[in-house]
Amino acid sequence: MSARIKAVLFDVDGTLVDSNDAHAAAWIQAFREFGTTVDPIQVRRSIGMGGDKLMPAVSGIEEDSALGQQIAARRGEIFTHELLPTLAAFRDAAALVAAVGARGLRAVAASSAQKDELKALLDIAGATDLLDGWTSSDDAEESKPAPDIVHAALRQVQATAAEAVMIGDTPYDISAARQAGVRAIAFRSGGWLDPDLTGAIEIFDGPWDLLARLDQSILGT
C-alpha cells in the first residue's frame, strides 16, 4: 500500500511559468556574443537542466571554466533584464498551488533556477506566498536530471520520497524525481511530447488541466 501523499514538489519553469523559450533564447544569445555557435534545437531540448549540465551538452564548454563563467553570467543578464519582464504564468498556476495547500498538502518549489531568478519567477506565478518553501540551484551540488534538488525539497517539507509527488514538464524533472524515488506528474506545457515524458504516472496539459481534474488525479485520492 502506498504511503499517503503529504507533499507536492513543483518545478517552476515550463510548469508554472511559460519561460522555457525565453531561457533558450538567453542561452543562444549569450553563446553567440562570446563567439560560440550552438544548435537552437539542442539548446531548447536541454532547458530543464541546470547550466552545469546544459553548457557542456550543447557547446562542450564547462560552466566552471573562465569562458563558461562569462557566458553563464551574460545569460543571466539577458534573461533577468530583457526577457523576465515579458513572461507570464500559465493559466491557473497559482490556483493549482493554492488547491494543493487547501487539501492539507505541503507545496515546495524544486527548481534548477538560480535563487534570484526563482524568486522572480514565483512572483510571476503568484505562488510565492502559497508555497511552504523553495529550493534552487544553490541548494544542490548537481542540477537536474540529478536528484539533488528533489532531495533538498523533501528535506524542506520533511517528507519521505514515498509521501511526495513531483510536478514537472521535462524528462529531466521526471528523471530527477524517479532517481529520488518520488512519483512524477508531467505537464505538456513545457513543449515536450508524451513519449518524452515516459516515467510520469500522469500527464496533463498544464496547471489548468490538472486543476480541473484534481479529484481524479493521484493528488485527489
Briefly summarize what is shown.
This protein is an alpha/beta fold and 221 residues long. The protein has helices at 20-33, 40-46, 51-59, 66-83, 93-102, 115-125, 148-157, 171-179, 207-212, and strands spanning 7-10, 106-110, 133-135, 164-168, 183-187, 202-204. A six-stranded parallel beta sheet has the order 3-2-1-4-5-6.
Spell out the blueprint of helices and strands.
Elements: E1 7-10, H1 20-33, H2 40-46, H3 51-59, H4 66-83, H5 93-102, E2 106-110, H6 115-125, E3 133-135, H7 148-157, E4 164-168, H8 171-179, E5 183-187, E6 202-204, H9 207-212
Parallel strand pairs: 1-2, 1-4, 2-3, 4-5, 5-6
Helix pairs in contact: 1-2, 1-4
Describe this structure in words.
This protein has 221 residues and is α/β, with parallel strands linked by helices. It starts with 6 loop residues before the first strand and ends in a 9-residue tail after the last helix. A 6-stranded parallel sheet has the order 3-2-1-4-5-6. It has 2 domains: 145 residues, 3-Layer(aba) Sandwich (Rossmann fold); 67 residues, DNA polymerase, domain 1 (Orthogonal Bundle). Helix 6 links the parallel strand 2 and strand 3. Helix 1 crosses helix 2 and helix 1 crosses helix 4. It has 9 helices and 6 strands. The model has no long low-confidence stretch (mean pLDDT 95).
